[in-house]
User: Which sequence fits this backbone?
């Protein structure tokens, strides 16, 4: 598969409605939206790290 | 691993008078792309004065080479920048790629006609145009960029329809 064929295949998976919504925003608004999303990503990452450090609870036996 | 503080890092660069042009994923975001990015990529002007400003801006952020073990002697100063070109760094405020030259775009002066001023995180900054960003990503020819190129080309298409 050529690069262009791969690119065209990826295009079918892109959410155009999201792009249209982003285009209605100013660059400043886009940056604020992006930063809110990244802070959530960072928080989830930290939570995952904490969860990995906790010992797993014992399995629940069904009576 | 330091989470990149995009507002503070971009502010530090933008408010220091350093001549830079934003490229990469954050430039895509500035134009409306939805893909996440974890670092800031900038093309910097390689004049002695601008390199001095760059060093002055970044030194308080303790820049270090990304992905190398700590303890390797590295100092981001004017000599280091003069003797190098592109630097992938980690700073106190996160990951920063300093690019002296980019495939398909050349150096700062070559890219300047293809840059526009945008306000991001409250900072006025030069950002490569969407058309040029697509061109740069295609010129880089990296498989990992193909998905980004797809989104950027659709973004351009939607923008031009409006």
Assistant:
């Amino acid at each position: 598969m050529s690069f262009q064929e791969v690119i065209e295949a990826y295009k079918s998976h892109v959410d155009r409605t999201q792009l249209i919504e982003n285009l209605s925003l100013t660059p400043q608004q886009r940056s604020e939206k992006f930063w809110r999303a990244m802070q959530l990503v960072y928080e989830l990452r930290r939570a995952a790290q904490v969860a990995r450090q906790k010992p797993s609870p014992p399995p629940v036996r069904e009576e | 691993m330091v989470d990149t503080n995009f507002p503070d890092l971009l502010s530090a660069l933008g408010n220091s008078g350093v001549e830079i042009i934003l490229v990469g994923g954050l430039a895509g975001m500035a134009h409306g792309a939805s893909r996440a990015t974890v670092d800031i990529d900038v093309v910097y002007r390689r004049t002695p004065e601008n390199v001095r400003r760059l060093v002055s801006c970044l030194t308080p952020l303790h820049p270090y080479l990304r992905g190398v073990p700590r303890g390797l002697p590295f100092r981001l100063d004017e000599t280091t920048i003069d003797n190098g070109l592109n630097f992938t760094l980690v700073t106190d405020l996160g990951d920063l790629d300093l690019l002296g030259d980019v495939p398909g775009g050349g150096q700062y002066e070559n890219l300047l006609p293809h840059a526009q001023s945008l306000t991001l995180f409250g900072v006025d900054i030069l950002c490569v145009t969407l058309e040029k960003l697509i061109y740069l990503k295609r010129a880089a020819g990296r498989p990992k960029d193909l998905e980004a190129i797809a989104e950027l080309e659709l973004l351009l298409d939607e923008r031009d329809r409006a």
Observations:
- Chain A is about 70% helix and 0% strand.
- Chain A has a mean pLDDT of 91.
